[in-house]
Amino acid sequence: MTESETRAESPVRAYNEWDPLEEVIVGSVDGAHFPPWHVAVGAPLSPEQRKVFRENAGRPFPADQVAAARDELDQLVEILAGEGVKVRRPEARDHSRSYAGRDWSSTGLYDAMPRDSLLVVGEDIIEAPMSWRSRHHAASAFRPLLKEYFRQGARWSSPPMPELSDELYVDGWTDQPDGEPFRSVITEFEPTFDAADFIRCGRDIFAQRSHVTNALGIEWLRRHLGDTYRVHELVLADDHPMHIDASLMPLAPGKLLIHPDRVPEVPRIFKDWEVRTAPLPVIPDGHPLYMTSKWINMNVLMIDEHRMVVEAQDEPMRRFAEEWEIEAIPCPFRNFNSFGGSFHCATVDVRRRGALLSYF
Ligand code: ARG
């Protein structure tokens, strides 16, 4: 088999966030547990969220909320399948089981957000070297799929497995005082990143350092991808950064959706793009959001550059899409949102039909 034949067959191929979606992995909330308390878990959370995580450490998420979120995921699967997309799911796992590193042990979190643990760049599916001990084996939920894709011709990569020893975490870390530059809870002890700290626009990939992604992690990906791609590090105005996909979302060539405060200066590279600010979220105050802000409303999934999945109760986002000539496909997802993400987080696009292009 020649190299070009292998390439033609790879079941993994996606270069951006908007080409027509052909195959997608949708996460699962089954077996979701609060992780053991650890400074790195608390860092990206608000003070109220930290309290809930401390108090519930090691316990399952409330069963009724898991059931409601599961039902919404099933509706998302149906919608995507109805649009002709091949949908894959992980097997349910029990996240209360304990595992160990060299000098630590932990239980798990969930398999709800494949976007955090897997990064597809072209034909390469990359397992993220995650910095939370509770997510150390997050990618393994998808191993049966990864092996299948590999057998069929995809590239499959895994960065050096992080040791997650105490040196990775800043001893005595506290939030930076208001107005001061972001102070990460992780050091440069070894490369770590979550896949969701990267967002793809063809040859250009945008990254942020966060409480889970360090400079070495970004550099690892840059060197791994080589000259074909340009990995740009952006500095956004997020006090508790973890995952870029509720701050900056390229929706289509020339269309950039941004958070109203976190992108005080649109990076110059987007100068020829139209940039619009996300509408105010409508999630009511009492609704549980264990891990994110309400700006999870902008965490949309593009089926192609003219269609996007939006939360069914989010009227402002539906109108926003339609005003921008994007058809909004509603799906109830508010219960899923409680777990820390929306449509973009809950999925990973395995294959989108399109070529590697430069959009700048
Ligand atoms: N940190 C973002 C916020 O609180 C949420 C990002 C969620 N993204 C994800 N891939 N899990 O607004």
Structure commentary:
The protein is an alpha/beta fold and 360 residues long. The chain is 22% helix and 19% strand. The chain is built from nine helices and 17 strands. Strands 2-1-17 form a three-stranded mixed β-sheet, covered by helices on one side. Strands 5-6-7 form a three-stranded mixed β-sheet. Strands 8-9-10 form a three-stranded mixed β-sheet, covered by helices on one side. Strand 8 (198-201) and strand 9 form a beta hairpin. The protein is globular and about 50 Å long. The chain starts with a helix and ends in an 8-residue tail after the last strand. The model is unreliable at 1-7 (pLDDT under 50). Bound molecules: arginine. The site of arginine (ARG) has 16 residues, from helix 5.
Record keyword descriptors for this entry.
single chain; about 350 residues; alpha/beta; three-stranded mixed β-sheet; 9 helices; about 20% strand; disordered N terminus; binds arginine; AmidinoTrfase; Amidinotransferase
Extended strand count: 17
Number of helices: 9
Tell me which ligands are bound: arginine
Protein structure class? alpha/beta
Question: SSE order in H/E notation?
Answer: HEHHHEEEHEEHEEEHEEEEEEHEHE
Shape: globular
- Record the strand order, biggest sheet: 2-1-17
Q: What share of residues are in beta strands?
A: 15-25%
Evaluate the radius of gyration: 19 Å
Arithmetic mean pLDDT: 96
Unreliable stretches, pLDDT < 50, 5 or more residues? 1-7
Distance from N terminus to C terminus (CA atoms, Å) equals 35 Å
Percent of residues in helical segments? 10-25%
The major sheet is characterized as: 3 strands, mixed
Keywords: Transferase
InterPro entries: AmidinoTrfase
Protein name: Amidinotransferase
Organism: Streptomyces huasconensis
